[in-house]
Amino acid sequence: MTGKTLYDKLWDAHLVRQEDDGTGLLYIDRHLVHEVTSPQAFEGLRLASRPLWRKESIVAVPDHNVPTTTADRGNGTAGISDPVAKIQIETLNANCEEFEINEFHMDDIRQGIVHVIGPEQGATLPGMTVVCGDSHTSTHGAFGALAHGIGTSEVEHVMATGCLIQKKMKNMLISVDGKVGEGVTAKDIVLAIIGEIGTAGGTGFAIEFAGEAIEDLSMEGRMTVCNMAIEAGARAGMIAVDDTTIDYVKGRPYSPTGETWDKAVEAWKDLVTDDDAEFDEIIRLHAGSIDPQVTWGTSPEMVLSVNAKVPDPADEDDAVKAKSISDALEYMGLQAGQAINEIPVDKIFIGSCTNSRIEDMRQAAVVVKGKKVADNIKLAMVVPGSGLVKKQAEDEGLDKIFIDAGFEWREPGCSMCLAMNADRLESGERCASTSNRNFEGRQGQGGRTHLVGPAMAAAAGIAGHFVDIREIGGAS
Amino acid sequence: MEKFTVHKGLVIPLDRSNVDTDAIIPKQYLKSISKTGFGVTLFDDWRYVKAGEPGMDHSKREIKEDFVLNQARYQGGSVLLARENFGCGSSREHAVWALTDYGIRAVIAPSYADIFFNNSFKNGLLPLVLSEGDVGSLFKAVEANEGYELTVDLENQQVITPEGKTYNFDVDEFRKYCLLNGLDDIGLTLQHADEIKAYEEKRKVEAPWLFA
Ligand code: SF4
User: Fold this and answer.
1) So what's the ipTM on this one?
2) Cα–Cα distance for residue pair A62/A66, rounded to 1 Å
């Protein structure tokens, strides 16, 4: 018998039953809930008079709609000027109260982006199945967990049954071999992977990220990589458990203690792919050949080295692909052949569940320290991923570094990652953003998004255009 | 959930690949706490000249004349034809609700993003896969013939053209069964409540930290 992959082990451990056609009923250990994709699910439960299966499995937090200016955040939901957003957050509060769910409210220091606070609280543990009505739930796979983004019907299903109906996915291994060069971060690794396999490359697969460059990453970096598995089409991305994982989890509010901790650690050590396991597909990248990345188009796969030139649709033989390139260039207001490091930007956004953890804040702060944002920058903002990240950054003096350089230092939330609140791009504005999606209109209708890592975004703010972080120094 | 058995409808050709859920329904509309009313803002950025806001009178907004949904010949369409990787991006089920609320019953594309694909089945929307070549031929046929209608027969897993040509498609047995019968899968799962409880009891012993 051949061995099992990490995904096989997680699947087998959570399988309650399986239909003849292979459809499985998977038990869900942790359900994270936010305001946007839950109201219709709670409504469904109420209409059918169904109780929650296990309320302790749920942790809720408002994040997508919350205002990020300190002035607006002072008064709880009363400070939300958008009446529709306000109703949505109040609806979450009311639902959590009615169903007795643990919620971190807007004024709680533990509030933040759902994918930042789960791990931060130890609510995400190795070996768990984690779901959330949000596609970036793949983030939690960094802990050797099986984490899926789900739709609202599934949110309701998990609430009512404690389980998710799933077909087993195929196994893909993406191995990033060797070490990355100076100045190359987790974000560059994952963008390079997406550039390689495409936004649909991982569709139908659970991806395991492995290799020396992945093992070398901190948990923050691993979360950045798994976060964007969904941008490669994979509903779940994951990384094997090692000492880095266990050290991160230790001592967090929801983490086990005492004897249970020892027992858990023992079990977690098995959360690795067996040596003789087989993958349906294996992709290898050389870490040493990855440059700092910048997306130039309207899909995360439209990504290149900061030193490359914007592609020319005329060089593409496939007519459908050539049309995507020319559509993207038109939307982005770019010329074929233009040098990426000469593209000027208007706004800088450092935040989102991809890059708003303490390590990201530090990487950006190193670059801006003692400098000023360029004159052409209309707005540069840093939005920490949670109240606790914000506090830690302030304890380290990072807020001052950003403010002195001309950045705005905001309250935690999703913010300009998807522009559901007041933080957004105006039509035609160009943003260097540490978020995960550069789709048309993602950061505001007509807005133009270039995805980069935190140090690269910070550097673009100082230079006024993209620059290779390795040329200005300061990157970690 | 609305049953899906056989559906005959006018085809709307959306000639784009990687149509993402942000394009299907932009974020400002996700603030709604209801499942209905998303149809008028389906493909909002492509359909209207200026960005809309929830609660406004969408019938008064200036439209982009050349976008397919705004062309006279595609009014009343209920079968959407698109290119590869349809529905990529966010998990928002609002994308499916916007399509169904508009009146779309089936989507035909060479491939879909996983979460969108899954969400569709929960709402009586059939996302069916045909080969890139077949989708290409259908695009040509739709553009060449005004009033082009397709019949989608789920029971027999066939798409039938007006000329009588048929294309077969695959669909999971379980999903097909739920769709044909309009079944809610929460009810189906709860039939196995005892098994779920038994699993839970076993896990509480094996891995108590998961239940703290
Ligand atoms: S930060 Fe962006 S991608 Fe992450 S959960 Fe919020 S909106 Fe989604």
Assistant:
1) 0.92
2) 7
